[in-house]
Please model this.
Amino acid sequence: MVTPMYRQIAEDLRGQIETGQLAPGGRLPTELELRAKYNNASRNTVRDAIKWLTALGLVATRPGQGTFVVEKIDPFITTLSGDPKTGFGGGEGTRYRSEVSSRKRTPKTSRIRVEIQEAAPEVVEKLGKPSGTVVISRHEKRYLDGTPWSMLTSFYLMDFVTRGAVRLTSPEDIPEGTVQYLADTLGIHQMGYRDWLAVRTPDGNEAEFFRLPPDGRTSIIEISRTAFDGNGQPMRLTVSVYPADRNQFLIDFGQVPEQEKDQET
Amino acid sequence: MVTPMYRQIAEDLRGQIETGQLAPGGRLPTELELRAKYNNASRNTVRDAIKWLTALGLVATRPGQGTFVVEKIDPFITTLSGDPKTGFGGGEGTRYRSEVSSRKRTPKTSRIRVEIQEAAPEVVEKLGKPSGTVVISRHEKRYLDGTPWSMLTSFYLMDFVTRGAVRLTSPEDIPEGTVQYLADTLGIHQMGYRDWLAVRTPDGNEAEFFRLPPDGRTSIIEISRTAFDGNGQPMRLTVSVYPADRNQFLIDFGQVPEQEKDQET
DNA sequence: GCAAATTTGTTCGTATGTATT
DNA sequence: CAATACATACGAACAAATTTG
Model:
C-alpha cells in the first residue's frame, strides 16, 4: 500500500497547519516554491495536494494571490429551545434579536417577501394537509455584521388570512410576533412544536446568498419547525437554513442553569 | 465570464442525474466514452468534471468498475428530546433501542471501553471543573443493520467512583441507565441537560469507523450533552458523533402530538 | 492609469500503476 | 492471465486574476 505523493505533500502541509507553523490566515508557499520543496514534483502534483487540503476545508486558494490557511469563524450560537407557547426560539422574532445583541453582533434583516402558492409536497406533508392546499409564505434573510447568516421561510394556511389574519399578507414585521397575532385574531394558540434537523449540501440559491465556495464543501443545516395548536393540528411550518461553517445550536431540556452562551470549540 | 469545459460537462451530467436519466445506483459512461461524447475533451478534463460531481456528493467512483450515481440513504432519525430526569433521548439507553426497533432496524453495540484520564480542555470546560480534573470515560460504538451509525463517549467525574459508583468502571452495560444508577448510589439526580450541536469535518478515526470517503466530504454532526444535577452543577458530559449523510434529528417542545417518525426528505 | 510580474486556473498530451472483472 | 477502468504523475501551454512598479 503506497501513499501517493500528493497525499504525502498534503499530509506534510497539514501537519504544519495543525502545529501552527502555518498560522491561520497565513499564506502557503506558491506552487512553484512547493515544487522545489517537495523533490521537484510536478506542478500538477502540488496542485493535487492543495486540492486535497481544500476539500478538507483547511486551506482556500485565491486566484492571483495564493493559497491561505482558513481562519476559524467565530460561530453564531442559536438556542432552539424556547417557550413553546410563543415560539420564540430557533432564531425567531424577539429571541433572535436578544441572542444576537448579547453577543455584540449587529443584526440586519431583509424585507419580508410574501408569496401565495400551492404548497410543495414537503410542505403539505409537514402541515398534514391534502396536496393542492394553498399557503402563504413569508420569507426573510438575515445578516450578522454584514455576513449572510440564515434564511427563513414560514408557511401558514391561506385559510388564516381569509378568516381575518390579514396582516400575514403584509411584507412588514409583525412586532408582537405571528404567534401572538394569530392568538389575538383567530384564537389559535401555539402549544408546542417539533423541530426536524438535517444536514445536506446547499442548492444554488443558498450557495449564492451565503457566498459559499461553489464546490459544495460547506453543508447546510436545515431546521423545519412544525408548530401545533391546542388540538394537535399543525398551524405553521418554518424552514430555516444555516450554513454549517458559522452556526451552532443549543437545546435545553429540564432545569439548566443560566450561563454564558459564548462557549466555543 | 466563461464557464470552463469541465464545469459544463459536470452540469450536463448533473442535469441527467437530477432528471433521473441517470438513475441512483446507475453507472455513468466510462471516462473514454465521456471523452467521445463531449467534443473529444481530454481524459483529464472529463476526470475534472467527475471530480466536481464527486465533491458535490452526487457520484462516487470505484477503481476498476466505474463511476456510479450515489443512492440516498434512508436516514436514521434520533429524537433528542426526552425525559430530562432520565436522560433517555439522544440515542441513550432504552430510548435508543426502542427508536431503532420501531424502524425495523437491527441495532448492535460495541463493548464499552472505559478509560480514566485527565480531562481534555473541552471536557473540563463543559463540566465546569478546573483543568487537571480526572474523569472516567465510557466509549461505545453503535451499528444499525451492520452499518456504523454513531460513536458515543460519556465523561463522569472520577470522584463519583471513589464515592461508591464503582460500576462506572466496569465495561458492562448498566441496564437501569447510569442516571438511575447515580441516583441510587450517590443520590445525584439529573434535573436537565443542555445539548450543543455543531457540524464539522471528520477526523481520521471517524472517517475510518464510519467508512467515510477519505476526502472529508461527509460532515460529522457532533452533539455534546451536559447534564445538570439539582444544584445546577454539571454531572456528566456525553459527546455523540453522527455522520451527517445518514442521520437526522427531531426535537419536541411543549405539546406535540404522537405521530409517525418515518418522515423522509 | 497602465504595463509587467506573479500566481492560480484550465486544458491538452502521455506514460505508468492499481483494482476489478 | 488478459481486458477494462480508474489513479497517479509528469510536462507543457495559455488564460485569468491580482499585485506591484
